[in-house]
Amino acid sequence: MTGARKTVGDPGANAHGAGPPYGYVDAKDALIKRMRRIEGQARGIEKMITEDRYCIDILTQIAAISTALEAVAGMILDDHVNHCVRHALSSGDDAVAAEKTKELLEAVHRFTRTL
After folding, report:
1. Where are the domains of the chain?
2. 34: CB partners within 8 A, 6+ apart
3. N or C: lower Cβ tally within 10 Å for the chain?
4. How far apart are CA 101 and CA 115, in angstroms?
């Protein structure tokens, strides 16, 4: 059906029923590339431990991974606000807007506790 509104259960639908499912889809390739780089860094740390490398060198690499993960989280959080939350607030549905606002605040609290 042309012009039919998608529902949440439909592939490609999102919580507000239209468009791509999540805001990060446009940056998906870049996010996957970053996550693969992080995965490689984690394997490198495992190798450093196996090889009995110096503690500070290992800690330096762990800090680099933490920073890289924070950058990925920040990108996804930005996309969530600019896509999912924005659409929920503009939908006119107070329940959906309240739900997305609550989700956003919970995510921010989780994210800031890890910093």
Report:
1. 24-113
2. 68, 71, 72
3. N
4. 21
